[in-house]
Amino acid sequence: MQAEIHVGKDWTVNQTLYKIQMAPQGVIWRYMIQKRYVLLLLGLIFCWHHGPVSAQSNPGEPLKIIATLFPLAEFAETVVGPHGKVEMLLPPGAEAHSWRPRPSDLVKIAHADMVIYAGGGMEPWLEDILQSVDNPDLMKLEASQGLDLLNDVEHQHDKEGAFDPHIWLDFGNDQIIIQNIARALAGLAPLHKAFFRKQAEAYNQKLETLDELYRKALHNCRSRTMIVGGHAAFGYLVRRYKLTQVALLGLNPDARPTAKQLKEVVDLAKTQKIEAVFFEEFVNEDLARVIAKEIGAQTLVLNPGANLTRAQRIQGVTFLELMKRNLENLKKGLGCQ
Fold this sequence. Notes:
Elements: E1 4-7, E2 11-14, H1 15-21, H2 25-50, E3 63-67, H3 70-80, E4 84-88, H4 103-110, E5 114-117, H5 126-132, E6 139-142, H6 152-155, H7 171-188, H8 193-217, E7 225-228, H9 235-240, E8 244-247, H10 259-271, E9 276-280, H11 286-295, E10 298-302, H12 310-315, H13 319-334
Parallel strand pairs: 3-4, 3-5, 5-6, 7-8, 7-9, 9-10
Antiparallel strand pairs: 1-2
C-alpha cells in the first residue's frame, strides 16, 4: 500500500509522486559540476591541438550558424536563407534547462561563424564552452541583451534573484531579436545585407499578425489566471496579454514544491473556479494532474517553445504553429470567447 501525505481537511497527495520532486539535489549538483569541468577540459585539449580556428576563412561559403534553442534557430534560418546553414544544439525532446552538451557540440561551435543563444541563465552550460573555444572570429549574439527582462522577484515571486530567460514568448521581443540577427548577419556578409533585412521584415510581419491574433482571442475570457503545474515559464506571455500566471514552482525547473505551496495553489484555484491546469511539454505532468484532480479541472499542455519533440521535428512544425496551438489551449482553458 502506498503511503499518503494529508495536508489540511481535504488535501491528499500521493507520496510516491511527491518523492519524485524531492530527489536529492546534492547528487545532481555534483554531477552537473563534474560534467561542466570535463567539458571544459575537452574543449581546452581540442583548441590546444588544433590551434585557433578562423571561422570566416572562406567568405564565399554559406555562413555556419549555431543556435541553442528552437525559436532562435528558426529566426536565424529564416533571415539567413540560402546564405547560411543553421544548426540547433538542443536535440529533439530535450529540456533546455537540464540538457548538457557533448564534446562534438563544442567542435561545432568552434567552427561556426556565429552562435546565437538566449542568455539570462537559460543555457547555464554554454559559458564554459564559449570561454574554451579559441575562435577570435566567432560572433556571439546573446538574444536577451537590450530587452526588457522580467525579474523573478517582481513578477514570479521566486527568491532566487534571476531573470526570466523565456524571452521568445513575447512576440515583441522576437521582432527585436530578429532585427538584431539581421544586423549581425549583415556584419558577417555585407553583400547580402538587403536580403537579410527583407527576410527579417517579412517574418516580423507574421509575428505582428500572430500578436494581434493573441490579443483578440484573449481579450474576453472567463478567467485571466493561468494555473501552471510546473515552473513559471510563461511570464512574458502573461505580461503582454495582461494575464496572471500562478505557477507551482519558480523559474528554476529543478525546484521542489512544498506541501504548503501545493495547498496554496489548490485553494486559489478553487476560489477562482479554475477550469484547467496547464503543464509544459517535456515536463512531467503528474503535479498538474494532482492539482486538477483536487479542483475537478482538466489538464492542458502548453509548449514553452524552446524545443520540439522528435515527431514535431520530422513534421517540420514551426515556431508560429506551436504558438497557435498554445493559443487554442489557452482559449479553451481560460474560457475565452
